[in-house]
Amino acid sequence: MFKRCLQMAVLALALCLILPGAVQAADPGLVLDGEKLSTVESPPVIINGRMLVPVWVIGEALDMNIDWDHRSQTAQLRKEGLKIRITIGEKIAFVNDEEVALDEPARIYSGRTMVPLRFISETIGAKVEWDAANNNAVLTSPQVIEQQQEEEKPDTTARVHFLDLENGESILIDLPGGKHIMIDTGSANDAEKVVKYLQAQGVGEIELLVATHPDSEHIGALSQIINSFKVNKVIDSGFGADAWSYQSYIRLLSAAGIPREEDNKQTITFDDITLRFLTDTEQWPDFYDEDADHDPDDYSVVCMLQIGEIKFLFTGDAGERVEKTLTGAGIQANILKVGRHGSSAASSRGFLQQVQPEAAVITAPSQNRSGYPYPEVLKRLNDREIKVYRTDTQGTVVVTVEQGQYSIKTEKQN
After folding, report:
1. What Å distances lie between residue 220 and 128, 161, 190, 251, 338, CA to CA?
2. Residues 324, 325, 330, CA angle at the centre, nearest 5°?
3. Per residue in 47-64, pLDDT tens?
């Protein structure tokens, strides 16, 4: 009995001399990007509170090239311009030939070259955490860290959709953070298509709905929009084409509990994005005076959307009379929504000179009985070398604004 105890004591002392500070416990494991690495043949070891792992295991897991110099007992790990040199027993390692102090040197253990896990991993940009409950070192690779950082970045992309409709006009504005603005709803015949399009874009709530004027092709689908989405606020021109329709419109909003206000040159801010209204309570000749030179389209709400340095000018069906009142109002814009679907009653040469757009979008109905856009309007735009997009020939037009730049894509190529 005494002889057996003496043998066990000698064995324990030998282990301590060979590997000072080693913790003899259940072998710890390695997890990389959620997957456990196989370390059955060469398990990690904890020495002086630091985990050492086989150089080949950690090197291959992190996609590094490994060279071993048996004479100097030095391992060299390389990846994309990074070079790590670590020598057995030395508490100094080299990263791209610069000295780095180590808490625990590399060692030969059970015939395996063991290197400090945290030093190798963090040098290459990986993250190391300890899962005490499962006795695992948990690594996150640089690739996954980069992906996580990209996902955590705030969304700064905005999109403006000019919908291709049968007989109306509707514009959806997607703001960063999942907020949405809608300018007009399209006609009643367009309601199903508009609702489906908004749903496909992930719209559940509309922060602001701008009803530019009470024409059926602009707000005919209002009831379906209100029934399909939560609308937080409506801004309109305050003008009713006729008393009965106007009262019906007011009752519809009231029944839904949606607050409304009239355009009054106000500015609404969505974080760093602004929507500035350029029209207010204009009073043109009496609509009910048959002798008056009156066009209800001229009560259209006109507004300017600014995303960073990129500006959009939305004109509804406003004609030349309204355009003349907007001169000098800071109306220069990158993208112009052409007024009145491309009618010659809008987009005057003087107005285009003031706006100086780089691109123009014409929301011409696909069921186009009026011949929009008129040739003279296209000529005015072409004369100024303005790039023209048309929903009737190119389908839905989407303008994406990201990092101070904009790009335009169309549903159809022509």
Report:
1. 59, 19, 8, 15, 20
2. 100
3. 999 999 999 999 999 999
